Amino acid sequence: MTVFSFTSGVILGLVLTVLAVGAAPDESLITHVPGFDGTLPSNHHAGYVAIEGNPGKKNLFYYFIVSERNPSKDPVVLWLNGGPGCSSFDGFVYEHGPFNFQAGESNGSLPILQLNPFSWSKVSNTIYLDSPCGVGLSYSEDPRNYVTGDLQTASDTHAFLLEWFELYPEFLSNPFYISGESYAGVYVPTLASKVVKGIKQGEKPHINFKGYLIGNGIADDEYDGNGYVPFIFGMALISMDIFEDCQATCKGKFYDPPNDRCRKNILKAYAALTGLNMYDILEPCYRYPDSKAMSLPFGLRQLGVTEKPLYTRKRMFGYGSQLWLSEQENTVTSSLQQAKAFHIPCINDDFATAWLNDEAVREAIHAAPASVAGPWEICATRVRLNYTIDTGSMIPYHKSLISEGYRALIFSGDHDSVVPYTGTQAWTRSLGYKIVDEWRSWISNEQVAGYLQGYDHNLTFLTIKGAGHMVPQYKPQESLDFYTRWLDEKPI
């Protein structure tokens, strides 16, 4: 196996074997972080793991933070952002990473970094992985490796994990969890299934896999889609008249309208939401100055109103997969295919873009320069245009994993309309497990922070009050609270 790091733009290759490695590779250690003036509270490592591509190699970039609490005992947690095709540095920069980012002292200067008191690395050894190949700082010398899908992504990430644990064998005995949000509702269970299969087949190194957690993740077309209209009515975004018309004509089939009257009523409901920040209905919608695009719900894809659909396949949830409405033409278009610079509707990604496209930052974190890996963007166009959805409902994956004893925490920011909690609550309930912890509030900082329902077989559904799609971004303290208690197997 070969691990690559970049120093002064030069690729350093080091061939390692399991017997030769006794600890984290020295060349992966980060000695300074541009924009941060202080001492890191724990070791940070980063670099590339090369796995087999077709043809050539796929170079997957990771950033690993050693736990600030008890590295030898604390779990190792892999974090994956969604998309598909979005960088896990979104979680690193904006959600639960080690730093909080602030504007630089002048235009064009690097963001200022300060320690994040609610970083998940306070209690876990955390891996942020840019996956699949072509996302974020991950790259291949052959662009044919950017053509991928659900199953290939799971296989590649599993291959990464086997290589990573050979590089960091001191963490093999730690409990291992897989986590993510949004389209990681597909990434996580498909990867977990690959890991479990490998364990059963005796693959080495042996991964001490214990379970997974998913935030506002997609799972099933029908459940996720049918939860939308009840959610927007419950949040006072549509009138009772509109809701009752939808109920009367759709008979609960909001995701797959059974007739034209139902279709027209759902379009009327969606029209009321134009311009809303779909990721958090309480937050303003950030708009880039050169963009006249307006955020629209995903359901329009299923209603046949797109002239140039961004995706014709189902289940394209998460960052950048929204359909946009032109204010001038009032038609849905594909902004991704029309613009080189891609921005998520309503989301400001300026800090991450400025920091990760600075060559001094890339050198410090052992990432390839832009001339090799390409510019960093929050959601990679080169992957999104070549991604195939080749899995169905995730419910069978969840049933299999949970029935085999793996722990699962399914959490939802309750003000997210991208993957609303109504659908998630419905599919977790549909699994049919016995309720062992009746619906109740949970507390953070002496306040009600949300609600949960616990099932047997170690399944928990949990909401976070007032949070949007990216839960730790909106509620960092509450997120660290439930994360810590769940990892420590304590009541939330």
Automatic annotation (TrEMBL):
<keyword id="KW-0378">Hydrolase</keyword>
<dbReference type="InterPro" id="IPR001563">
    <property type="entry name" value="Peptidase_S10"/>
</dbReference>
<dbReference type="GO" id="GO:0006508">
    <property type="term" value="P:proteolysis"/>
</dbReference>
<dbReference type="GO" id="GO:0016747">
    <property type="term" value="F:acyltransferase activity, transferring groups other than amino-acyl groups"/>
</dbReference>
<feature type="signal peptide">
    <location>
        <begin position="1"/>
        <end position="23"/>
    </location>
</feature>
<keyword id="KW-0325">Glycoprotein</keyword>
<keyword id="KW-0645">Protease</keyword>
<dbReference type="GO" id="GO:0019748">
    <property type="term" value="P:secondary metabolic process"/>
</dbReference>
<keyword id="KW-0732">Signal</keyword>
<dbReference type="GO" id="GO:0004185">
    <property type="term" value="F:serine-type carboxypeptidase activity"/>
</dbReference>
<keyword id="KW-0121">Carboxypeptidase</keyword>
<dbReference type="GO" id="GO:0005576">
    <property type="term" value="C:extracellular region"/>
</dbReference>
<dbReference type="InterPro" id="IPR029058">
    <property type="entry name" value="AB_hydrolase_fold"/>
</dbReference>
<keyword id="KW-0964">Secreted</keyword>
<comment type="similarity">
    <text>Belongs to the peptidase S10 family.</text>
</comment>
<dbReference type="Pfam" id="PF00450">
    <property type="entry name" value="Peptidase_S10"/>
</dbReference>
<dbReference type="InterPro" id="IPR033124">
    <property type="entry name" value="Ser_caboxypep_his_AS"/>
</dbReference>
<protein>
    <recommendedName>
        <fullName>Carboxypeptidase</fullName>
        <ecNumber>3.4.16.-</ecNumber>
    </recommendedName>
</protein>
<dbReference type="InterPro" id="IPR018202">
    <property type="entry name" value="Ser_caboxypep_ser_AS"/>
</dbReference>
